[in-house]
């Protein structure tokens, strides 16, 4: 469904809407494991969260013009469930640059196992610092995307062995600048289904937050966060969809 017009606020500022949605709970969220680019499924709770997100948007008669997701099944599947609950036949455009930050050698480990293997500080710094990089993978590790068929065709130098939030924010930029931002500039309402850290960096970019402020942002699974943007894509306000329903 195309937006026929860009809605106007009382002050006459043109508004377009960007919905940021962290996928529903995954089985590794449930089991408290570092996930990153590991491609795990939604839990049954996550499927229900995705359904509820779609119902909320549908009940609000939310007009959506395009939908993007990461290539990871927990995000893509969430997007598919949301669109189906909204009875919308939009394609889900997948972009690997919307994948979660890569957790390097921490992927597949729980917090305790990670600390036992790498020590407290390497794990802690990954979680509390914007520039904190996880212990990196070796190039021959099966968890390196360069060894996975789904990423064939992408320059191997672009694929991560482990990322800080800053590095993840940087690799998102070509997708944001060339693909998503132009849609918003044309007044189209956009849904992005992605991941906690990747979306936190995007919120930081939109709101001009400091790295410290970004690290404090919380982003629960399965709750659509709506940003109303003016013509210059400056946020006018933002709210969780379930706070206004
Ligand atoms: O990858 C992970 O471990 C989590 C938290 O960073 O991300 P998400 O559940 O949002 O994919």
TrEMBL record:
SMART domains assigned to the protein according to its UniProt record, in alphabetical order: PGAM
First-tier enzyme category under EC: isomerase
GO molecular function: phosphoglycerate mutase activity
Pathway(s): Carbohydrate degradation; glycolysis; pyruvate from D-glyceraldehyde 3-phosphate: step 3/5
List of residues binding substrate: 22-29, 35-36, 74, 100-103
Family stated for the protein in its record: Belongs to the phosphoglycerate mutase family. BPG-dependent PGAM subfamily.
Subunit structure: Homodimer.
Record protein name field: 2,3-bisphosphoglycerate-dependent phosphoglycerate mutase
Species assigned in the record: Nitrosomonas marina
């Amino acid at each position: 469904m195309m937006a026929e017009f860009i809605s106007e606020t009382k002050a006459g500022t043109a508004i377009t809407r960007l919905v940021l949605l962290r996928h529903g709970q995954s089985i590794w969220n449930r089991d408290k494991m570092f996930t990153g680019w590991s491609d795990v499924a939604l839990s049954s709770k996550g499927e229900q969260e995705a359904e509820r997100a779609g119902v909320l948007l549908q009940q609000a008669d939310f007009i959506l013009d395009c939908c993007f997701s990461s290539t990871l099944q927990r995000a893509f599947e969430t997007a598919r469930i949301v669109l189906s609950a909204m009875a919308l036949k939009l394609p889900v455009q997948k972009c690997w640059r919307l994948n979660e930050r890569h957790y390097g050698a921490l992927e597949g480990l729980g917090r305790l196992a990670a600390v036992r293997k790498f020590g407290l500080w390497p794990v802690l710094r990954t979680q509390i610092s914007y520039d904190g990089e996880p212990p990196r993978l070796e190039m021959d590790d099966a968890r390196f995307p360069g060894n996975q068929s789904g990423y064939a065709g992408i320059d191997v130098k672009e694929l991560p062995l482990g990322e800080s939030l800053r590095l993840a924010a940087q690799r998102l930029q070509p997708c944001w600048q060339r693909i998503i931002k132009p849609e918003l500039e044309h007044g189209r309402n956009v849904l992005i289904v992605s991941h906690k850290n990747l979306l936190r960096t995007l919120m930081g970019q939109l709101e001009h937050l400091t790295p410290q402020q970004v690290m404090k942002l919380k982003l629960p699974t399965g709750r659509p966060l709506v940003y109303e943007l003016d013509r210059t894509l400056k946020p006018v306000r933002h709210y969780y969809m379930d706070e206004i329903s």
